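Summary for the lay section of the report: proteins are chains of building blocks that fold into shapes. Here we show the chain for DUF2510 domain-containing protein and then a coded description of the shape we predicted for it.
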Amino acid sequence: MSDASPDVPTQRGWYADPAGLPQKRWWDGDQWTEHLHDPERNAYGIDGALAAGAQASVFNNYIWAIALLPVVSFLALTSAETSSPLLGWGIAIGSVVLAYLDHRQLLRDGLDRPFHWAWAILSPGAYVVGRSVTVRRLTGASLAPMWVWVAIMLVYVLTVLGKADGAAAAALGGTAALGG
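The coded shape description reads as follows.
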Protein backbone atom coordinates (compact mmCIF):
# COMPACT_ATOMS: atom_id res chain seq x y z
CA MET A 1 0.00 0.00 0.00
CA SER A 2 1.89 3.01 -1.20
CA ASP A 3 0.44 6.45 -0.55
CA ALA A 4 2.28 7.79 -3.59
CA SER A 5 0.45 5.83 -6.29
CA PRO A 6 -0.93 7.92 -9.18
CA ASP A 7 -4.55 7.05 -8.39
CA VAL A 8 -4.48 8.29 -4.75
CA PRO A 9 -7.81 9.97 -3.93
CA THR A 10 -7.98 13.59 -2.84
CA GLN A 11 -11.16 13.36 -0.75
CA ARG A 12 -11.69 11.40 2.48
CA GLY A 13 -13.75 8.28 1.99
CA TRP A 14 -13.98 4.57 1.25
CA TYR A 15 -12.12 3.37 -1.85
CA ALA A 16 -11.06 0.08 -3.38
CA ASP A 17 -8.22 -1.32 -1.31
CA PRO A 18 -4.92 -0.45 -3.05
CA ALA A 19 -3.59 -3.87 -1.95
CA GLY A 20 -6.30 -5.53 -4.05
CA LEU A 21 -8.34 -6.92 -1.13
CA PRO A 22 -12.10 -7.31 -1.72
CA GLN A 23 -12.91 -4.82 1.06
CA LYS A 24 -12.80 -1.07 0.78
CA ARG A 25 -10.16 0.86 2.73
CA TRP A 26 -10.62 4.28 4.38
CA TRP A 27 -8.57 7.17 2.94
CA ASP A 28 -8.38 9.90 5.62
CA GLY A 29 -7.28 12.60 3.18
CA ASP A 30 -3.58 12.06 3.86
CA GLN A 31 -3.02 8.31 4.01
CA TRP A 32 -4.68 4.90 3.88
CA THR A 33 -5.83 3.78 7.34
CA GLU A 34 -6.20 0.31 8.83
CA HIS A 35 -10.01 0.61 8.66
CA LEU A 36 -11.59 -1.86 6.25
CA HIS A 37 -15.19 -2.06 5.11
CA ASP A 38 -16.99 -5.08 3.67
CA PRO A 39 -19.57 -3.75 1.17
CA GLU A 40 -21.67 -6.93 1.51
CA ARG A 41 -22.46 -6.02 5.13
CA ASN A 42 -23.59 -2.49 4.18
CA ALA A 43 -27.29 -1.74 4.13
CA TYR A 44 -28.75 -0.01 1.10
CA GLY A 45 -28.15 3.75 1.08
CA ILE A 46 -25.42 3.89 3.71
CA ASP A 47 -22.71 6.27 2.63
CA GLY A 48 -19.00 6.44 3.49
CA ALA A 49 -19.51 8.45 6.67
CA LEU A 50 -21.86 5.78 8.01
CA ALA A 51 -19.60 2.95 6.97
CA ALA A 52 -16.59 4.64 8.54
CA GLY A 53 -18.36 4.73 11.85
CA ALA A 54 -19.15 1.05 11.63
CA GLN A 55 -15.40 0.37 11.81
CA ALA A 56 -14.69 2.99 14.48
CA SER A 57 -14.40 2.21 18.17
CA VAL A 58 -17.08 4.62 19.35
CA PHE A 59 -16.99 3.73 23.04
CA ASN A 60 -13.57 5.00 24.09
CA ASN A 61 -12.38 5.87 27.60
CA TYR A 62 -12.97 9.58 27.08
CA ILE A 63 -16.74 9.35 26.61
CA TRP A 64 -17.06 6.98 29.55
CA ALA A 65 -15.06 9.38 31.75
CA ILE A 66 -17.40 12.25 30.80
CA ALA A 67 -20.48 10.09 31.36
CA LEU A 68 -19.19 9.05 34.80
CA LEU A 69 -18.09 12.55 35.94
CA PRO A 70 -21.35 13.14 37.88
CA VAL A 71 -20.25 10.33 40.22
CA VAL A 72 -17.55 12.70 41.53
CA SER A 73 -20.20 15.32 42.35
CA PHE A 74 -22.41 12.64 43.88
CA LEU A 75 -19.60 11.40 46.13
CA ALA A 76 -18.79 14.97 47.17
CA LEU A 77 -22.47 15.59 47.94
CA THR A 78 -22.84 12.48 50.07
CA SER A 79 -19.54 12.90 51.92
CA ALA A 80 -19.74 16.58 52.87
CA GLU A 81 -22.36 19.18 53.72
CA THR A 82 -20.98 21.68 51.22
CA SER A 83 -18.98 21.11 48.09
CA SER A 84 -16.18 23.31 46.88
CA PRO A 85 -16.81 25.55 43.86
CA LEU A 86 -13.40 24.37 42.68
CA LEU A 87 -14.83 20.88 42.29
CA GLY A 88 -17.51 22.20 39.93
CA TRP A 89 -14.95 24.13 37.91
CA GLY A 90 -12.66 21.10 37.80
CA ILE A 91 -15.46 18.90 36.49
CA ALA A 92 -16.45 21.52 33.90
CA ILE A 93 -12.89 22.00 32.62
CA GLY A 94 -12.20 18.28 32.75
CA SER A 95 -15.28 17.50 30.70
CA VAL A 96 -14.25 20.00 28.00
CA VAL A 97 -10.75 18.51 27.79
CA LEU A 98 -12.15 14.97 27.69
CA ALA A 99 -14.69 15.96 25.02
CA TYR A 100 -11.89 17.42 22.89
CA LEU A 101 -9.85 14.21 23.24
CA ASP A 102 -12.94 12.10 22.48
CA HIS A 103 -13.72 14.15 19.36
CA ARG A 104 -10.13 13.84 18.18
CA GLN A 105 -10.16 10.06 18.77
CA LEU A 106 -13.39 9.64 16.79
CA LEU A 107 -11.85 11.53 13.88
CA ARG A 108 -8.77 9.32 14.03
CA ASP A 109 -10.99 6.25 14.05
CA GLY A 110 -12.56 7.35 10.78
CA LEU A 111 -15.84 8.81 12.00
CA ASP A 112 -16.59 11.72 9.70
CA ARG A 113 -17.99 14.85 11.41
CA PRO A 114 -18.64 13.60 14.97
CA PHE A 115 -20.51 15.78 17.47
CA HIS A 116 -18.38 18.84 18.22
CA TRP A 117 -16.47 18.86 21.50
CA ALA A 118 -17.30 22.51 22.25
CA TRP A 119 -20.81 21.51 23.35
CA ALA A 120 -19.16 20.32 26.59
CA ILE A 121 -18.62 24.00 27.45
CA LEU A 122 -22.39 24.33 27.74
CA SER A 123 -22.71 21.16 29.79
CA PRO A 124 -21.05 17.75 30.01
CA GLY A 125 -24.54 16.29 29.61
CA ALA A 126 -25.11 18.23 26.39
CA TYR A 127 -21.98 16.66 24.95
CA VAL A 128 -22.78 13.13 26.14
CA VAL A 129 -26.33 13.24 24.77
CA GLY A 130 -25.42 14.97 21.49
CA ARG A 131 -22.43 12.75 20.91
CA SER A 132 -24.40 9.59 21.66
CA VAL A 133 -27.22 10.55 19.29
CA THR A 134 -24.80 11.59 16.54
CA VAL A 135 -22.72 8.42 16.82
CA ARG A 136 -25.90 6.33 16.78
CA ARG A 137 -27.06 8.12 13.63
CA LEU A 138 -23.70 7.63 11.93
CA THR A 139 -22.91 4.08 13.04
CA GLY A 140 -25.95 2.46 14.57
CA ALA A 141 -24.10 2.08 17.90
CA SER A 142 -26.05 1.98 21.15
CA LEU A 143 -26.80 5.01 23.29
CA ALA A 144 -25.09 3.42 26.31
CA PRO A 145 -23.01 6.46 27.46
CA MET A 146 -26.10 8.66 27.34
CA TRP A 147 -28.21 6.23 29.37
CA VAL A 148 -25.43 5.78 31.95
CA TRP A 149 -25.17 9.56 32.30
CA VAL A 150 -28.97 9.91 32.60
CA ALA A 151 -29.14 7.20 35.29
CA ILE A 152 -26.34 8.79 37.32
CA MET A 153 -27.96 12.22 37.05
CA LEU A 154 -31.32 10.80 38.13
CA VAL A 155 -29.78 9.29 41.25
CA TYR A 156 -27.91 12.55 41.88
CA VAL A 157 -31.06 14.69 41.58
CA LEU A 158 -33.07 12.34 43.80
CA THR A 159 -30.30 12.47 46.40
CA VAL A 160 -30.21 16.27 46.30
CA LEU A 161 -34.00 16.41 46.65
CA GLY A 162 -33.85 13.98 49.57
CA LYS A 163 -31.21 16.10 51.31
CA ALA A 164 -33.23 19.27 50.65
CA ASP A 165 -36.39 17.62 52.00
CA GLY A 166 -34.52 16.49 55.11
CA ALA A 167 -33.07 19.97 55.63
CA ALA A 168 -36.49 21.58 55.16
CA ALA A 169 -38.09 19.15 57.62
CA ALA A 170 -35.35 19.84 60.17
CA ALA A 171 -35.77 23.60 59.70
CA LEU A 172 -39.53 23.37 60.07
CA GLY A 173 -39.18 21.09 63.07
CA GLY A 174 -36.77 23.51 64.67
CA THR A 175 -39.12 26.41 63.96
CA ALA A 176 -42.07 24.53 65.43
CA ALA A 177 -40.07 23.78 68.58
CA LEU A 178 -39.16 27.46 68.95
CA GLY A 179 -42.73 28.61 68.37
CA GLY A 180 -44.29 25.98 70.71
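Put simply, here is one thing we learned. The chain has seven helices and three strands.
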